[in-house]
Design goal:
The protein is of the alpha/beta class. It has a domain of about 100 residues: ANL, C-terminal domain (GMP Synthetase, Chain A, domain 3). Helices cover about 30% and strands about 25% of the residues. The strands form six sheets. The chain has a nine-stranded mixed sheet with strand order 2-1-11-10-12-13-14-15-16. A five-stranded parallel sheet has the order 4-3-5-6-7, with helices on both faces. Helix 2 crosses helix 3, helix 7 crosses helix 8 and helix 9 crosses helix 10. It is globular.
Length: about 525
């Protein structure tokens, strides 16, 4: 890919990518868990966003102001984001799972001038006891709420036309807070120019979206992945987005894929794993699905094989971070490389480096790093020059994820820097052990961490969630240990196995290994 094709014009606004698809074509098909349905065209969506942008202008919100947005999988979410982008307002996405202590930090750290929240989620804002000196407006939608402004009233009687604010490519667009495992979250700043590069990398190369596709990306507003795919990649491509606002159930997901004739699916490894465990998975017709991708963490080979065997569908793993875009992916899948992360999207920008930021030779484990001039890299950690500076070594931004690369430049994931287990001098990546455990018929989910040991320094410990109806006991633990020994180098097997009901996870669905280690 030509690097210049990823660099935005000096004046650029992400909203223009959606505005250019103004037509009577269906932009979004929405369904909830009760079976209610709605649709909205591109023209209707843009008109609604224009009305909100005009209303926010009258309220006193201006270019550069920060707004904390807490919503869910609703059509209104797209209206809010598009309106804010058109107005030049900086959006700080927030998950509905956040609590008052999380929200007050975001409000004060971002100096948010307003909150826009779905009415069902306002309780935690109301529970905030600390001062929020920058907050001027609390806006709710979906239902009128006492002491909150109504978004519907703000939009009423407003013009359906709005001239998008002239933002520069380096102007802030998104302020996303990482779901970090330790300390307070970092505020990751993305510019409008980031959106330009992200769309041109993610939509055509990874998601393989065409304008006539119906695309389902299951991510929820509140984390960066929703901005990545449901908002920018789908609507920026002029495709039709499918939105499901209901609880996850593997059978329901497969019915949606079948009944709505979904063409492109983007969901988490956990969702794929749950679907793959169903005994009747082969009974579903997924013939319309031409592309399936996975993001969030590495996907097990066993799950990939099940979808390939039943639907002749190759799930393509992709890797990126809140701080970037898609960096590494399996685009043209080599059967001999299944289980790898794939290749860097732009090979000259992604490397495996040592602790000094120097590229490593093939087959040596180091840290995945991104060249500082990559067009889809974040601008800074907001208000934290030290963390921004410390995230760079030499000419590279350091991701914190460990991997090696082979002779063909395929990357092989090892784990986070702080997740890698050193036992008796051996370096053990947790994913390889987890992948082996997941192949056992009794295992539903698992996570592997280091457990301190007086002799070996650390040993491998596995937390295992069993399938329904399976009882955990010493006999099964021994069986799992022997099972892993057969699939990996013997020193990697979990010397300790603990059966638990659920794994602790972040808002974005990643396993909180730090909590398991503690």
């Amino acid at each position: 890919m030509d690097l210049n094709a990823l660099i935005a014009p000096d004046y650029y606004n992400i909203a223009n990518e959606i505005d250019k698809h103004y037509s009577d074509k269906i932009a979004l098909k929405w369904e909830n868990g009760n079976g209610d349905h709605k649709t909205i065209t591109y023209a209707e969506l843009i008109k609604e966003a224009n009305k909100l942008a005009n209303g926010l202008t009258k309220l006193g919100l201006n270019k550069g102001d920060r707004v904390v947005v807490m919503t869910t999988r609703l059509i209104e979410s797209y209206v809010i984001y598009l309106a804010c982008l058109k107005k030049g307002i900086v959006i700080s996405p927030s998950s509905e799972l956040l609590r008052a202590k999380d929200l007050v930090y975001r409000l004060n750290h971002s100096e948010a001038k307003a909150v826009i929240s779905y009415y069902q989620f306002i309780t935690e804002f109301e529970n905030i006891k600390e001062e929020t000196p920058f907050l001027k407006y609390k806006i709710a939608f979906g239902q009128e709420v006492e002491n909150w402004l109504s978004m519907e009233n703000i939009m009423s009687n407003e013009s359906e036309t709005f001239e998008t604010v002239a933002t520069k490519k380096d102007d802030f667009a998104i302020l996303a807070y990482t779901s970090g495992t330790t300390g307070m979250p970092k505020g990751v700043v993305h510019s409008h120019g980031w959106g330009f590069a992200h769309l041109r990398i993610s939509a055509p190369l990874w998601l393989n979206i065409h304008e006539d596709d119906t695309v389902w990306a299951t991510a929820a507003p509140g984390w960066q992945k929703w901005v990545w795919s449901p908002l920018l990649a789908i609507l920026g491509s002029g495709a039709t987005g499918f939105v499901y606002n209901g609880k996850f159930h593997p059978h329901k997901y497969l019915h949606i894929l079948q009944d709505h004739k979904i063409n492109v699916l983007c969901c988490t490894p956990t969702e794929y794993r749950m679907m793959a465990k169903l005994d009747d998975i082969a009974s579903f017709n997924l013939s319309h699905l031409h592309t399936a991708v996975s993001a969030g963490e590495a996907l097990n080979r066993e799950v990939i094989d099940i979808f390939k065997r039943n639907f002749n569908l190759q799930i393509r793993d992709g890797y990126g971070q809140t701080e970037s875009t898609l960096l590494i992916a399996n685009l043209n899948v080599d059967a001999n490389k299944i289980g790898s992360m794939g290749k860097p999207i732009l090979e000259e920008f992604v490397e495996i480096v040592d602790e000094n930021g120097q590229p490593l030779p093939v087959n040596e484990v180091g840290t995945i790093a991104v060249r500082k001039d990559f067009p889809a890299l974040f601008k800074q950690y907001y208000k934290d020059e030290e963390k921004t500076k410390n995230s760079v070594r030499g000419n590279y931004f350091i991701t914190g994820d460990r991997a090696s690369k082979d002779e063909e430049n395929y990357f092989w994931f090892q784990g986070r820097n702080d997740d890698v287990i050193i036992s008796s001098g051996y370096t053990i990546g947790p994913f390889e052990v987890e992948d082996a455990l997941m192949k056992h018929e009794s295992v539903k989910e698992c996570a592997v961490v280091a457990s301190p040991d007086p002799i070996r320094g650390n040993v491998v410990k596995a937390f295992v969630v069993l399938k329904d109806g399976v009882q955990g006991n010493d006999l099964l633990a021994k069986e799992l240990q022997n099972f892993v020994k057969k699939l990996t180098a013997p020193y990697k097997y979990p010397r300790i196995i603990q059966f638990i009901d659920t794994l602790p996870k972040t808002d974005s669905g990643k396993i909180r290994r730090v909590e398991l280690r503690n």
